[in-house]
Write a structure and sequence with these properties.
Layout: H1 5-8, E1 15-20, H2 22-28, H3 33-42, E2 43-52, E3 62-63, E4 68-69, E5 72-79, H4 85-95, E6 100-106, E7 109-119, E8 127-134, E9 138-139, H5 145-153, H6 164-184, H7 193-222, H8 226-247
């Protein structure tokens, strides 16, 4: 079994390996000119690799008001560039009405994406993304400790089998743990619900502070006034200290 499926260890009877043609996205997805340009240039091929559904597994479907967990789909995409993965992932997750795990393959490097999404009640042809994750690049020969633990955590055997939502949310927690690891250097799954909620709040605070910091640094580069530069540098130092404080709570 080739990388990364040797880590996922998905049931063989769930293997599909069905080609998805880009034409289907062009015809059924709202894209602007830039989206189409990136989709055409960056994506070489799209393959529906695995489908996890009740009749193929022991896992029940799950219905809720805004989303249906009838199956979970693993899609692999051969790409020529990873420059626009966030936008392309956004488009794909919105377009396919199933919980998705996207695996991008650029030569020997892999990128992974997952999304927490709901149906857009005002538009039944699209989904609303509550959160989107796209990892950095993974190379089999050069996996960091956090990357190896992340991949191991995605294994089929480690996911709850109560229903498909629980299974998929467990994958999402692995992505969230990897996001924390990108800050702290340590990959650790959170098992208690209260601690998971606290982690989400802390991550949100960290990312918001990080964005404010980036905006101030951008403003500093444009600033000509010495006194304003001093003021901005003080604000930047304050935010950098806040980031260090928040990172200790993650």
């Amino acid at each position: 079994m080739n990388y990364p499926y040797n880590y996922l260890q998905l049931p063989e009877n769930c293997l599909l390996e069905k080609r998805i043609y880009k034409k289907l996205f062009y015809e059924n997805t709202r894209m602007n000119a830039t989206d189409k340009k990136w989709f055409t240039a960056d994506i070489e091929s799209i393959t529906w690799m695995y489908t996890l559904k009740p009749e193929l597994t022991v896992i029940k479907a799950f219905e809720e008001e805004h989303f249906s967990y009838e199956e979970i789909t693993v899609v692999e995409l051969e790409i020529s560039s990873h420059s626009h993965l966030n936008r392309l992932s956004d488009i794909i997750h919105r377009s396919i009405p199933y919980p998705l795990l996207l695996i991008y393959r650029e030569n020997e490097t892999l990128f992974f994406s997952i999304a927490d999404k709901r149906y857009n009640l005002a538009d039944d042809q699209a989904a609303t993304l509550m959160a989107l994750w796209v990892t950095d690049g993974f190379t089999q020969a050069g996996l960091t400790a956090a990357q190896a633990l992340f991949l191991q955590q995605l294994a089929y055997s480690k996911q709850p089998k109560i229903h498909l939502k629980a299974f998929y949310q467990s994958w999402i927690e692995a992505f969230r743990a990897y996001e924390v690891a990108s800050i702290t250097g340590e990959f650790m799954m959170e098992t208690e619900a209260a601690k998971r909620e606290a982690r989400i709040e802390q991550l949100t605070e960290y990312r918001d502070t990080e964005q404010q910091l980036q905006e101030l640094k951008t403003e500093l580069k444009k600033q000509a006034s010495f006194s304003e530069k001093v003021k901005l540098n003080m604000q930047i130092k304050t935010l950098e200290n806040e980031l260090k404080t928040i990172s200790k709570t993650l």
